[in-house]
Amino acid sequence: MLPARVSWRFLAIVCLAIVPGPACRSAPAGSQSGSAAPRIVSLHDVTTEIVLALGAGDRLVGMSEPVDLPSRARAAVHRTLRVGGLESIVVLRPTAVLGMAVVAQRSPDLVATLRRKGVDVWLGHPTRLEDVVDLVTEVGARVGATSQAQALGTRLRAGIGATEPPAREPVRVFVYDCCDPPFTAGRTAVLTDVIHRAGGRNIFADVAADWTKVSWEEVISRRPQLIVVHDYPYEGQGDVAEKRRRLAALRALADIPVTVMPLGNALGGLRSFDGLAHLRKVLAENRERG
Hints:
Layout: H1 8-18, E1 40-42, H2 45-53, E2 60-63, H3 71-76, H4 86-90, E3 96-100, H5 101-106, H6 108-116, E4 120-124, H7 129-143, H8 146-160, E5 171-176, E6 183-185, H9 190-197, E7 200-202, E8 211-213, H10 216-221, E9 226-231, H11 240-248, E10 258-262, H12 272-289
Parallel strand pairs: 1-2, 1-3, 3-4, 5-7, 5-9, 9-10
Antiparallel strand pairs: 6-8
Helix pairs in contact: 7-8, 9-12
């Protein structure tokens, strides 16, 4: 079994050594022969989780290094090749490359080049929970699991339910993802819709962005009543304990109730529905205390 981080050059050398000649020539990127199974590369945790939920993990030939996958999902993909740049993706001859809009924001040249090579690059950009269902449908079509996607979509729609009618004004919620100055959710983040459906209001719902940096002065001036802290240490951004210390150091925020959620509950994928259930419970408790 090849290790998960095998380079594309190593794969090419092995191919030439074992099966010389025409059998080793790469087919055009994105092409399939006959009824060959789809070959999927996923560049985001959200699309990786959906591929697995649809029972199509065997079609996942490559993926980006995960940031916050649940342990069960990590176990399912621990032998899947990790990709990085263009060449490591193209050598796998994917029929589709899946991810979220942030992939194009961070690597526009990569996305543009893959598309020029004829690869079907599909990047989701959900802003509401209903859009997550559409995302599942799109992924299902590309991995050859349309019926499974329809069934999962039906279950997800049932979980959305109605927006909780707050007994009083919606609870004002500040999302503290990471960093100093703070990085938080704006108007078009799915988490803003989740907070609304749970009976709260994101204090930065008026900012036209998915995720954005704000100042601590802005946070304090909007008088949050609940702070959502994301639980993930990544690239020096600090763990939950460090984030709590930053909040405690600000007198105006030190006594605000804090709830901790996994990052995956906020990224616009399947676990957004777990985030909805969590926040409905927390916000109901907050209203009872208030």
